[in-house]
Fold:
Amino acid sequence: MNAPIRTTCAYCGVGCGILARHGEDGRLLVEGDPDHPANKGRLCGKGQTLGETLAPEGRLLHPQIGGERASWDAALSHVAEKLSAIRAEHGPDSIAFYLSGQLLTEDYYAANKLMKGFIGTANVDTNSRLCMSSAVAAHKRAFGEDVVPGLYEDFELADLVVLTGSNAAWCHPVLFQRFEAARETRGSKLVVIDPRKTATAQAADLHLPIAPGSDVALFNGLFRYLCENGAVDEAFIARATAGFEEMLPLLDAAETEITSVAQVCRIEPALVERFYEWAAETERWVTAFSQGVNQSSQGTDKGNALINCHLATGRIGRPGMGPFSITGQPNAMGGREVGGLANMLAAHMGFTPADVDRTGRFWNAPQMAEKEGLKAVDLFDAVHEGRVKAVWIMATNPAVSLPNADRVRAALEKCDLVIVSDCVAETDTLSYAHVALSAQGWGEKDGTVTNSERRISRQRKVAEAPGEAKPDWWIMTQVARRMGFADAFSYEKPADIFREHAALSGFENDGARVFDISAYAGISDDAYEEMTPFLWPAPAQGVRRERPFQGARFPHEDGRAHFIAAAASMPRHAPDALFPLVLNTGRLRDQWHTMTRTGLVPRLFAHVSEPTLFCYPADAAAQGITRKALVEVETAWGKGIFRAVFDEGLARGHIFLPIHWTDRMTAKGITGALVNPVCDPISGQPEFKHTPARMRLLEPAHAGFLITNQSFDPSPFDYWAKVPLKDGTLYYLASLADDAPFEKLDRLSVTWYARGEVMELRDKGKSALRRVLVKDGVTVSACFMGPAGSVPDPSWLAQQMGTRADGAAAASLLAALPMDPAEAGAKICSCFGVSAAAITEAVQSKGLTSVKEIGNVLQAGTNCGACRPELAALLEQARLKEAV
Ligand code: SF4
Structure:
């Protein structure tokens, strides 16, 4: 076995360290790095399967112009010439870059410098705009700079952790498990503020299922309670803050009384009061917030409202306390540091004349951008309106992920020049590209990333890139040289860029900006290679503080933190008679963004395998919707088809859709197409958590599934969803009225099945069939179709592909049911493949009473731990059943 290479995970903002090595069969094996401070050896299910995502299949191997293979030289020259021509004819603002939190800091730095210093526009935005730009804006208003004050260890040192708008058990599992482990010994309390009873909320001591958008009202009420109950730190307020007087009207306002707050939040006053009491009496208190706060038309105000409470109590900048923004992406923070957002320049500088001048001198830039550029939603609007004529999209999929995604597609369709850099060959966005540039992906390139606690780590190359894929920093450097900027883009390796980035952070800084890593400005190539994770700030001179506000000094010019009086307001679009439901969107436990990577790993579909609508049972019943029915969800912006699942954790009148499915994976299930494009007026972050919607039952004439390793085009079906298997693909299929696709599938599968032993059941009217092909005693494919609701769940049958089918097992195949019922159904623990049925059976037959006992018997929950809240919920269900 070769020596492991230390790198970091490609997925969420926890930024877990990984040890990667090649096994004897050449496969990449990954395990948690016990020495990385973020995860101390832990990895969640997504991180554990990263080694399975490096297959060469489906990769974009070569550059393309107009869909035809091109040499790198031709593609780079083409891009440089086109951009130069558009800039000359229409000006710098006619060009835009749209980047990604998946890029490494060095990639981000090169893109930002090229645009803001040399092309001469700040039209550089990033998909991080969709994730945490409200937190950035709240930090800047409160502290004067985008600084996360705390560390992950604060979750372990706190006596109270408040998670607001954060399903951390699913979306930041390793951080949540660190807290859970500490909670067991420390006895700390968990409060979860979320309209939905998520897996995280199930683990809470107190869950506040507040109405969407009522967060500001809740935290303004808390501010008043803290002031009236002796919890404020007057010395801290006097010494380290400004603007407290502007908050005083809240103390007399009727809307900050507990009963009014409870009314606005639509929860019991007792719940509000208990939260307020716990916050007032707990010195070590962390408030962590994520997309539920940020993805809102009042996201920035929400962030400031909760920060105000920490400033009032002085509970910030010390161990175990403070506001804490948890970022979604692996390098959202790195992007913020270099200026990847259109309203930031570089190294945490803005567009003041002094900052523009300083950065221009440092870069020796001929044409500095002097004003903020277009934020994501506005940027694609400008493409749609023809103001932006060339857009270069890197490592992201806006045709799926932006709100009102169909309008984004229309914008790309008519744009003069669409350049897309990606590592996969097919994405919804790539289908609009005039030029496609084959980029290297995770594990193939070198650079750095920054996680949510400001820790900079190396991401290292652990495998050769396929084809001619190149790192993004190299692609941009080559284009910049061809545009005439060779002197400023003379980089030969990522270390060259990192040194320059570090030097800029310290350039004429003198303590004005907290983001300062100038201690690394002279790092040698060897030291960069060996770099161990470190926290910023890391200035060349002066104090290195792990918690930047430890000395109660803030980066505002007056050195103080600022209270921001935020008025409570509600989401822009309210439900009405036409669209009576509230659509909320978010992530699943085992998937990532638009599935370009997790979509390659069969076991990550064992938890949820189709584009799924989570709906409240009574709402579903009112529409005649049963479990697993197909449902059309529609908003004023778009519609899609999803499989219904009941979720009693939702509030009545609310529905939830995951964000992950694309045109590549399903017929019409792009959640982004349904989302309203309203944005927070300060941060520009779209309101993904609140869109008025309606739903209706679809009643297919035929529905079923096909499992095959042959190529198959599902497009004639009104609904289809694709699930990768170890050997082959599972297609869920349905046709609404026309049965032609059914006939076609019947004929096609007869042809395939001529090559083996066929088991078949067919009803007299031939409107239903079950066909399984066994070849040399091994099950190789299956096709089940029939009237809606008549076809069994395919998940068990899908697992039988490639296994021996003899004796009693053969009868099971046509029934699509295992002989052991515990093997059936969705997998709760994807690490050990344990189903809900198996867990329930073990709880009942063995009298298990704790998650730990389930782990002892079935191993479930003993690895990454992300399923532990769901195990607890199954235990509770079994207990309630017994009580009845
Ligand atoms: Fe990766 Fe999971 Fe760690 Fe996030 S929590 S960085 S997805 S291993």
